Amino acid sequence: QVQLVESGGGLVQSGGSLRLSCAASGSTSSTRAMGWYRQAPGKQRELVATIITSSSTTNYADFVKGRFTISRDNAKNTVYLQMNSLKPEDTAVYYCYAVRGLSTHWGQGTQVTVSS
After folding, report:
1. Alpha-carbon gap, residue 6 to 25, rounded angstroms
2. Which uninterrupted H or E stretch holds 11?
3. Contact (Cβ atoms closer than 8 angstroms) between residue 8 and residue 14
4. 27 pLDDT higher than 80
5. Using CA of residue 13, residue 17, residue 8, residue 40, what is the dihedral sign?
């Protein structure tokens, strides 16, 4: 099992920045990828960003390209999501995920609210 704990969410004004953290513990070896999804009220969960563990290759949803940056600290087993130029439409619960083998593990989510 992989346990994921997110932190760093909060309330910020439009144009502001936040950095989310996701600390992984447990059976973190052989984790193939980690990243972030988000879910706004009344909407489906959508992929925000992914980082491939072995190569550090990153992928982003079009709606965050140029504004968000995903990174990983292997020594701390932690993934970060730096979010700049935030918009009200970025308001959502952000969930960290990790893919290990055939299983996907999820964090509990952290709320990000962007006021206009």
Report:
1. 12
2. strand 10-13
3. no
4. no
5. positive
Of 105, 115, 112, 103, nearest to 39 (Cα)?
112
Q: What would the pLDDT profile of 40-91 be if each residue is shown by its tens digit?
A: 999 999 999 999 988 889 999 999 999 999 999 988 889 999 999 999 999 9
Q: What is the DSSP string of 52-68?
A: ETTT--EEE-GGGTTTE
Q: Is 74 exposed, middle or buried (0-12, 13-18, 19+ CB in 10 A)?
A: exposed
- Three-state DSSP state, 47: strand
26-34 average pLDDT score? 84
CA distance 92 to 75: 29
Residue 33 structure tokens = 């990828």
- When pLDDT is cut at 50, 70 and 90, the band that residue 22 belongs to is very high
The token duo for 53 is 């563990």
Give the pLDDT score at 28.
74
CB atoms within 10 A of CB 115: 11
